[in-house]
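worker-3 :: picked Nucleoside diphosphate kinase-like domain-containing protein
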Amino acid sequence: MFQNIRDIILANRFYVVQTTSIKFSQESARTFYQEHKNKFFYHRLVSFMTSGSVDVHILAREDAVTAWRVLMGPTKVYQAQFSDPNTIRDSPESAAREIALLFPTFDLHVWSQYQEPSFRDGKVELCLNTFVHKLLDTARTIKN
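worker-3 :: tokens ->
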């Protein structure tokens, strides 16, 4: 499953800006999913997300949020099984909040200003060992 998800990410023309593997604590999972706190599935979601390690990625491409939503499919699992069985199931604001929580040293503003143009121009290559796209133009590289 792990490699299948990575293959889907790449097949859908996403660039991997950063990636890491984390283990959510109860507190960090509750913070991450705070927008769902009053929903019936909240406790089950927090339990599931703290049950093991999770690979998290910062992904980029033109219309990334819209493309990711299409790829993820309907939010209702039962509906997704029938209407979009091949999907893997956010707003730009949610993405920025999640990046800040999961990648605290990553500066989205700096990346957008200095690295995003190279990603848009395809001047990157995938490092298979780290599953992160690296800039080909090292003159634009910044430390993140």
